[in-house]
């Protein structure tokens, strides 16, 4: 890439990554200002600086820009030779359901023999290879590097989770999306967005970014859905949900520890390649729990149809999806059942409890990890949801934990966050126990479980090690049970005099 007759050998906003011949983009972040590191970038060999400030540096080209974040995306796009012009790109945004929806799309495309990539919360995938990621939507320089790698690896379609943080911070600037999916919008991340309106406008940017004639797949049951399409008449729209006005809906629903329904295309659909699809119904069965996963599947299958994948092929592929990590994931099913879910806002708790309500169980037990470092409001609202469902679900035991033995410094629960939980639940005389450590919580719950019970492991980062902790404990308990049984057998065969 040549800028002002200067050969640019790399692009970054991280001064620690600068090498000789790099372009350095100074971005003002939430806690650090990249402008404070311009001198360091120059010393490391940066040949050109982009900044929103009006500054001059001797013998260095400095370009003042209006929006440094957008500039970073545009530079990366140029540096990596516009990778999304060589890929089909599906972006999925929403408060809840992004991870499940993208994984369903990924699995269906993969089963159909399409070379597919994935960028999301759990990992980045390029065909069979997996790479770790720290953010749901990585920074532009990371995203574009992987998109470039996908082009080199002959990937045809990439599926991306697109977070509100990623949209507001211009991490997907310049990406050419073919399909944008909206799952839902609920109150979340208001510590970052400050207002619900800003949160919605950030989500809207994904749909504004769609090129002429590309598809918006919208959940019509969501109250905020149509706001995403305001002043956006250049895109094609497919709506889904249980609303009778939706283009795609579900019928003949049956849910318990698997979910079956009919996918109903109520009006004709034209695919991205121009193929006309007439209205139809087709049975779908998924090994995922809850009504919310019908929404996720409707969205995923619609994307598949737009890419010309036959519905029968998708139905077959969906049967092979057994679970999505920490998304109503059944981690143990024996004499009792243990379900793990990454609940992180009031709506996701509502979704889990609605799903559990339709299941058969003897007693319900909950270990809930408080969401650390996210403020009092979100934790108060979550505690309120738990309080409201306590009697409905007849919760037998509940343990609230700060998970202090596992949380990293960014997720540590403050005393005020802990207290708001305790105060909210105590006002209704709801029976619960508080445990500081996750391990102690799991150990206590394990010895309460009886045949036919369900144990829910709920919470965001504070419960990330819940499944692993439970699995290790149940294996240890089973080994001790085997030893006890063997010793009892030995006692029975030893002659008594």
TrEMBL record:
Pathway: Cell wall biogenesis; peptidoglycan biosynthesis. It is found in: Cytoplasm. Residues 326-460 form the Mur ligase C-terminal domain. GO terms for biological process: cell division; cell wall organization; peptidoglycan biosynthetic process; regulation of cell shape. InterPro entries: Folylpolyglutamate_synth_CS (IPR018109), Mur-like_cat_sf (IPR036565), Mur_ligase_C (IPR004101), Mur_ligase_C_dom_sf (IPR036615), Mur_ligase_cen (IPR013221), Mur_ligase_N (IPR000713), MurE/MurF_N (IPR035911), UDP-N-AcMur-Glu-dNH2Pim_ligase (IPR005761). The keyword Cell membrane does not apply. The lineage of its organism: Bacteria, Bacillati, Bacillota, Clostridia, Eubacteriales. It holds the Pfam family Mur_ligase_M. Belongs to the MurCDEF family. MurE subfamily. PANTHER family: MUR LIGASE FAMILY MEMBER (PTHR23135), UDP-N-ACETYLMURAMOYL-L-ALANYL-D-GLUTAMATE--2,6-DIAMINOPIMELATE LIGASE MURE HOMOLOG, CHLOROPLASTIC (PTHR23135:SF4). This is UDP-N-acetylmuramoyl-L-alanyl-D-glutamate--2, 6-diaminopimelate ligase MurE. Its EC number is 6.3.2.13. Its main location: cytoplasm. Residues 92-303 form the Mur ligase central domain. It comes from the Bacteria. The keyword Kinase does not apply. Residues 7-64 form the Mur ligase N-terminal catalytic domain. It comes from Clostridium aceticum. One of its GO terms (cellular component) is cytoplasm. Gene3D superfamilies: Mur ligase, C-terminal domain (3.90.190.20), Mur-like, catalytic domain (3.40.1190.10), MurE/MurF, N-terminal domain (3.40.1390.10).
């Amino acid at each position: 890439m040549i800028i002002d007759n200067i050969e640019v050998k790399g692009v970054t906003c991280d001064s620690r990554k600068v090498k000789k011949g790099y372009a350095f983009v100074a971005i003002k972040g939430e806690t650090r200002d990249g402008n404070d590191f311009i001198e360091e970038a120059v010393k490391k060999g940066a040949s050109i600086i982009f900044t929103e400030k009006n500054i001059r540096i001797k013998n260095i080209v400095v370009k003042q820009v209006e929006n440094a974040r957008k500039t970073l995306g545009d530079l990366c796009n140029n540096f990596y030779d516009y990778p999304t012009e060589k890929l089909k790109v599906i972006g999925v945004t929403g408060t809840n359901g992004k991870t499940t929806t993208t994984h369903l799309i990924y699995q269906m495309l993969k089963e159909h023999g399409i070379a597919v990539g994935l960028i999301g919360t759990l990992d980045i995938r390029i065909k069979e290879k997996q790479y770790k990621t720290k953010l749901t939507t990585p920074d532009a320089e990371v995203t574009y590097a992987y998109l470039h790698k996908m082009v080199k690896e002959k990937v045809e379609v990439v599926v991306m989770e697109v977070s509100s943080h990623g949209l507001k911070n211009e991490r997907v600037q310049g990406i050419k999306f073919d399909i944008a999916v909206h799952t839902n919008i609920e109150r979340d991340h208001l510590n970052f967005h400050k207002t619900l309106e800003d949160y919605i406008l950030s989500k809207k940017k994904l749909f504004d970014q769609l090129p002429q004639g590309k598809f918006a797949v919208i959940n019509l049951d969501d109250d905020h859905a149509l706001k995403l399409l305001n002043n956006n008449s250049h895109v094609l729209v497919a709506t889904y949900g249980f609303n009778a006005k939706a283009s795609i809906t579900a019928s003949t629903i049956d849910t318990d520890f698997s979910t079956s329904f009919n996918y109903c295309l109520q009006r004709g659909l034209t695919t991205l390649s121009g193929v006309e699809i007439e209205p139809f119904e087709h049975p779908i069965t998924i090994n995922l729990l809850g009504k919310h996963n019908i929404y996720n599947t409707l969205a995923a299958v619609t994307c598949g149809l737009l890419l010309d994948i036959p519905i029968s092929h998708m139905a077959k592929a969906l049967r092979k999806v057994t679970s999505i990590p920490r998304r109503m994931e059944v981690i143990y099913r024996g004499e009792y059942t243990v379900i793990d879910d990454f609940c992180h806002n009031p709506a996701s708790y509502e979704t889990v409890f609605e799903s559990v309500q339709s299941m058969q169980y003897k007693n319900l037990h909950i270990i809930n990890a408080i969401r650390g470092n996210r403020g009092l409001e979100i934790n108060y609202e979550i505690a309120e949801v738990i309080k409201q469902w306590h009697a409905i679900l007849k919760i037998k035991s509940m343990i609230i934990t700060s998970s202090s033995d596992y949380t990293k410094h960014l997720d540590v629960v403050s005393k005020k966050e802990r207290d708001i939980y305790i105060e909210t639940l105590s006002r209704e005389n709801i029976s619960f126990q508080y445990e500081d450590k996750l391990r102690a919580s799991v150990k206590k719950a394990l010895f309460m479980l009886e045949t036919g019970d369900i144990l829910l492991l709920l919470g965001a980062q504070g419960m990330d090690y819940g499944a692993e902790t439970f699995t290790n404990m149940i294996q240890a308990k089973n080994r001790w049970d085997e030893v006890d049984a063997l010793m009892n057998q030995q006692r029975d065969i030893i002659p008594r005099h």
